[in-house]
Design a protein that fits this description.
Elements: E1 20-29, H1 31-34, H2 39-54, E2 57-63, E3 66-74, H3 75-86, E4 91-101, E5 113-116, H4 124-129, H5 146-156, H6 165-168, H7 174-179, H8 185-208
Parallel strand pairs: 2-5
Antiparallel strand pairs: 1-3, 1-4, 2-3
């Protein structure tokens, strides 16, 4: 549990150098990054190596074009990682939701597990497990309060198996099943929405001919 309940976005200068801290930020993936099929493999690969070396743990969530990342570790290590992340050109609109001193880690896995929060892509089994996430979907974490952010973290840390698109697959329609073979998971929504938009335009043209 946090040691400071009243101010959950602390200033770095007010935190003791030996403290264990938790940083939660949100950002938006740029259009160029969303068009990249390898963006998440790159993020996971870099995080895996860096976090293991610096004893950093946490989780990275993605949905609806947005990132939410929770980072836990020693103050200096988390601060240095924040400096690296916040200048990364692959995302924008970075906003800190939580920065606080903690007694213990909520996420003890340095691999920085990745959760995909596109509910329409989940398998039935995953949807049943993640029913508690319904109040947080569609995923739009910018502007979340500290309390809402902590509620979200408390829920996702209890998952036996994360709602991960690679495991869930696209199961709800034939178009989705076709798309999963030609696009990365985070791109499927863009492609399907684009296709449906084209169909809508064609239908309107035919309607008025």
């Amino acid at each position: 549990m946090p040691l400071n309940h009243t101010n959950r976005i602390m200033k770095w200068d007010d935190i003791d150098d030996s403290a264990l801290v938790q940083l939660v930020y949100v950002s938006t993936l740029t259009l160029c990054s969303r068009l990249s099929t390898s963006i998440f493999d790159e993020v996971e690969g870099h995080a895996r190596n860096y976090n293991q070396q610096h004893n950093i743990t946490g989780t990275l969530c993605y949905g609806n074009g947005h990132f939410l990342q929770c980072i836990e570790g020693k103050k200096s290590d988390v601060f240095n990682l924040q400096e690296r992340i916040f200048v990364d050109s692959r995302h924008k609109n970075v906003e800190v939701l939580l920065l606080q001193v903690i007694n213990h880690r909520s996420f003890a896995d340095w691999r920085m597990r990745l959760l995909f929060l596109e509910r329409w892509l989940w398998s039935p089994a995953t949807k049943k497990q993640a029913v508690q996430l319904s109040p947080f979907l569609p995923f739009a974490p910018h502007g979340w309060s500290s309390d809402r952010t902590e509620q979200f973290l408390q829920i996702i840390k209890t998952f036996d198996s994360p709602p991960h698109i690679k495991a869930a697959g696209i199961t709800y329609n034939a178009l989705g099943n076709m798309v999963r073979h030609i696009a990365a998971p985070h791109q499927a929504f863009l492609i399907i929405q684009g296709f449906l938009s084209i169909l809508l335009v064609v239908a309107l043209i035919l309607l008025y001919l």
